[in-house]
Structures are given as C-alpha cells and as structure tokens.
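Notebook B, p. 112. Complex prediction, attempt 2.
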Amino acid sequence: MKLRYIKYFLVITVFAYACKKSEHIQEKVETFLGFQKPKNFPETAYNFANNPVTKEGFELGRMLFYEPRLSRDNTITCGSCHIQSSAFTQHGHDVSHGIEDRLGTRNSPPIMNLAWNKAFMWGGGIYDLDLFPISPITTHEEMDESLENVLNKLRSLDKYKSKFKAAFGSEEISTGKFLKALSQFMLMCVSSNSKYDKVMRKEGNASFTTTELEGYELFKQKCSSCHAEPLFTDNGFRNNGLVPSSINDLGLYTATLLATDKYKFKVPSLRNLKYTGPFMHDGRFLTLDAVFTHYAHEVQATENLDPLLNKNGIRGISINSDEKTKLMAFLNTLNDEEFINNKLLAEQ
Amino acid sequence: MKKILTIITITSILFTACKKDNATPDFDEQNLASLSVEFDNIVGGRTLTFDNTAVPYTNATGEKFTISSIQYFISNIQLTTTDGKQFTVPQDSSYFLIKGADRASRFAKVKVPEGDYSKLTFVLGVDSLRSTMPVDKRTGVLDPALGGHDGGGMYWGWNSGYIFFKFEGNSEVITNDQFGDPTGKKQFKYHIGGFGGYSAPTINNIRTITVDLTNAGIAKVRKDRQSNIHLFVDLMKVFNGTTTFSIKTYPTVMFGEFSTVISKNFKDLFTHDHTEN
Ligand SMILES: [Cu+2]
C-alpha cells in the first residue's frame, strides 16, 4: 500500500490526522511526480499540455474542492456531495443533497479517472473537465452561487493569494486559473489499485480465486461490451432499459435534442461499487441485487433501448443465481481501498 | 531512528492539542444548535417511486404492488448523548408530517444542545396528550383542516384523532368483491391511528422507535455546522416486519384489531444509514 503512494507521488508525508479543521504538519521529503498513467490504462483524453499538474496546482485545487466559500451561504463544498470515503460520491443519497437541503434530480457520480472521460454528467452536455465546476457552483440545488462572487470571496483571502502565486506565478485570481486548479485536483483522483488491477499488472502474487475468475469470464460475455475494461465504461451514452424516472429525465437528449438520444445515459464505471451506491443516474437501486434483478427481469422496451439488451427479441441479460454470485465476486475485485483512503486526496 | 521518534512525539502532541479544540462541548440546555433527522422512504432494494406499474415492487408473500401515497407523523423526538444525557425536544416544536410526495418534508428539523449523540428516540404517531388537546394547540401539521380525509389529510373527523400512518397503493391480487376493493380499482389502504381513546380505552397504535447511532455514525451537533441523521424507512417492512401478512387477505386496514399487527411492524421500518456532520 505504501508502495503505491510512492509510485504516484513519491511523497513521504507525515500525517497528524488529528482533526479536520486544524493545521497539520506535513514533512515532504521528495518531489511530487504529477499525474502518472497506470500501466494497465489507455492513453488519457484530457489535454495535459494545456494544464500540467504541479504540486502547487494540485494542492490549490484540493483546497478549493473542500472550500465552502464556493457556495452562496458558505456551507457546501464540492466534497459535500463527492465524499472520498464513498469514492467521491454522496453515499446513501439517491439524488444529491445540496444547499439549504435542496435536492437535485441526479445521483452524484464518483470523481474518479476523469482524465479518461470525454463527456461529463449523466446526460452529457459538458465536454471539457475545466468547464465543469461552473455547473455545480451556479446550480440552484447545488451551490447556488455565481462564479464572479466566488472569485471575489477568494480574492479577499490572503491564503489564496499566495497559493495562486505558488501555483500559477502571480497573485491574480482568474476564472481560468481557478478552474484549472480544480481540474488538477480531480485529475489526480485516479483509482487503479483494485485487486483486478494488481492481477492485470501481475503485481506480486495477485491472482483471482476460481469464483472471481468465472465471474470475470461471465462479465466479458454479458457486461463488458458497455462496461469496457479497464475503466469499466466505453465512455458512451446508452439506454439500459430503466423505466423513465418520475421526472422523465431524457438523459443525453437534453443536451443534443436528437430523438435518437432519448433515455441514453452515460455508461458509468463499475469500479468501487462497494462505496458508490445507490446506483443509476437517479440512484433508484440501493443494492447490487436490485441491479441484477433489473438486467435479468426488468429491462423495459423504452425508446432507444440498446440493441445489446434486446437480442433475438429477448429483452435483458440472462443471469441465473449461480452466475450472479460469480459476477458479484468479480465486481468485488474492482473495489480500491487505497483510493478511498488516500490521504493526499483528503481535506487537509 | 531519532528523527522518527521526534516525528512521533510531535504527532502525538498535535493529537492531544487537536482533541482539545475539537472537544465535545459541555451539555447546556440553553446552548442550542440545529439538527435534522431525514426520513428517506425506500422499498426493499429500491427507492420509492409512485405508481410504477411497469416494474412493481414485490413483497415477501410474492405479491406485486405499487404505491400511490405514504404519509406519517413523527413526534416527541428525544436524543441521548454518548455519555447518557437525555434531551427531549420541546413538544411544541416536535411534530412532523413526513409526506412521500413532498421530498422537502422528509427532514424533521429540531434544535438540541451542542453535543455528541448516539441514540435517537421518536414516536411514530401523535401522542395521546396532543390528540386530546384543545383545538388551538393543534397548529401547523396538526391542523385538522389540512387536506381532508380523502385529500391527503391525516385527521379522522369521525373518530376524533389522527391517522398516524397512511399508506395506499394498488395490487392486482386484490379482488373486486367486498373482501377486496368493490370499486374495482384494486386499491389497498392502510390508515393506522388510534391513541388509546378519549374516555374509554381503545386501540393504541402509538409506537416509540429507538435508533442506535453508534455503528453508522453519531451526530455531532455544533453551531457552525448542520448535522443530519439520515434514516432509511423501508416501506416493504410494513408487510414483513415482525409479522408477515398478505395484501390479498388484508387489503384495507383502518380502525380495527388488525391495525395493531401492522403498527407492531413499524419499528422494523427504520434503519440508520449514516450521519452527515
Ligand atoms: Cu445523508
């Protein structure tokens, strides 16, 4: 576990993790290595040339991610809905719970492996990570603030002046620098140390049990055409046959207005399912059991149902209870404890 | 080695230092801060959706059903600190009507002394004292004029009392005769109330629920933040809590003996999922 940290950050940190809100001492011995692509992952989609990750930029981004001044009444941070111990989701919440207890309409997805993402949000609409934070900051049910106000609040604080200077060379706090810093933090939220990854990278003597291996084979037959390895998403938008939600969320259609995009949602990664429930864009399923029941028995013939879930006139995916057990065992190997415990990603 | 020792020493000094400034405030009934209790309705492994006929829910007896309405009263909230001190929220600010259709109503917001709480107690229903109070004490959610019996109201005019728990929906298993739903709508209706009677004792369906917060996270109530105790309320358990029953056999339960069987299942509905501090 220590080895991993060294691999990504080469930072030896002495942590006095005594309490969230007081100061910590950190003794950094070696230099920060920036963003490192895990060996078993493909090339990234993010344009790093335009925003190289530096230690100072990352630390500023982290500070901003946990900064309540990003919300109108200074109560909500990005981390309120994207909680590290829940793999940066809002555990136990079907839809997000924001400022003044206002509820959103969609489930908070994990901040994880975003460098490989080409489109953001369940229904698309945002195609550049750098532009993403504007959406939660200005959304009524989320942080309900204006970007200008946020920047003004930050400008009035000395600690940010020096942090921006360290990260970007001048004390000026601009929209671009603010957004780039947040991206730097989010890009570093890489989950790549699950048992699955260790088996794939042939690390140590990591190997699947028989049940896990059988589950892996079943997964390749039944799931991986959409939940493609190693990120467990093909980065596409598809309709997996859910009954339209009570607000009739049309998914990708909302952004494109193409009839062929109705009810298509972003294919989510299946990493860290142990921590990310409830599931689907509106968090309708509280357990993986309910997810399997959906694929096996409840797939609906809604508009644009994915052809993969409607083969030879049979809707859904056949999964018997033995297969379910094996698939569950495999999915369990995708949980990455090091990710959710990585102190570098925590509020300091 | 020496360096490591120094670091350990510094760390432990910091630990102690930090503990102090994060310490539990003294319990002071005048020093109130806000706390919310979230009643998040779920149905087995799924969230609550109304009238989801395409994919209905299935109960323990194997009956498929959908839900059209759920409302209940929560009252008399009491909290106990980790060191055993109790605080009862003053009655006048301790009545809440949780309505499934109005998501904002799911937070019961109260004020309690700053402190660390590990036990939550509340009543599902309206206590007998309040149920017999003069009408000017029945304000807010207790106003008998709200809704009317058919319009989502929770007051029984004919029997001078409140419906504590009102749960309605549909199931194909319900027959069209007088043992089921003669209107042919295949509706089930569970209107559970009964505070023990005005003068002569009758059915008492007031249920006190206690939830231990130790495992899923104690509530740290402080002035500078908002603590929220997030409970799941599993409506499936109405059918299979302590006693399992069938919708087909009991499609309508109101003020009758069987209502006590249902109200005894109530305690099984509530689980503590987590606390936001
Ligand atoms: Cu919660």
